[in-house]
Design brief:
The chain is of the alpha+beta class and about 160 residues long. It has one domain. It has 4 helices and 7 strands; from the N terminus they run βααββββαββα. Helix 2 runs antiparallel to helix 3 and helix 3 crosses helix 4. The mean pLDDT is about 95.
């Protein structure tokens, strides 16, 4: 289970939620995932994202899969994973950070989300705490991450 932040290319005249609803309208959980087919522009966006995150955040590992392009941060404060699909992307943080560590990792996640927004035009939204990543407070997200992490640790340890 992960804390997830969504990024989407918002369709003109729609909200983030309306765009996601439209994208998910035909979703079939039993269907095979579509293979990644990026345009030249999307591939260029990914290269800019990868370059900026590496330069501004630090070391990352990157991989290309059949369904997405992925980067993961390497080292402290913890792993943040970005999956890029072209018109959407997602950021995942494991529920294993609490207190000051949760704040550090969520500041990193929001920093990556803002880089993705700037380099791709995607709009980020953190549905966990109902706020946009561009103007949202990573501290609010850290409180949520920390609370769920501590609950899980007490319940399953």
């Amino acid at each position: 289970m992960t804390y997830d932040i969504m990024l989407v290319r918002v369709e003109p005249g729609l909200t983030v939620q309306e765009t996601l609803d439209r994208l998910n309208a035909g979703f079939d959980p039993d269907a095979e995932m579509p293979l990644l087919r990026l345009t030249d522009g999307q591939r260029a966006e990914w290269e800019r994202i990868l370059d900026r995150v590496s330069r501004d955040v630090g070391a990352v590992e990157s991989e290309e899969y059949l369904y997405s392009l992925t980067l993961e941060t390497v080292g402290p404060p913890g792993r943040v994973q970005l999956d890029y699909y072209g018109d959407t992307a997602s950021i995942e943080v494991a529920y294993r950070h609490s207190g000051a560590a949760a704040l550090e990792v969520m500041e990193l996640a929001y920093r990556i989300a803002r880089i993705v927004e700037e380099e791709s035009g995607l709009t980020g939204y953190d549905f966990e705490v109902d706020q946009p990543t561009r103007t949202g407070d990573p501290g609010k997200a850290a409180v949520r991450l920390s609370g769920v992490s501590e609950w899980a640790w007490r319940r399953f340890s």
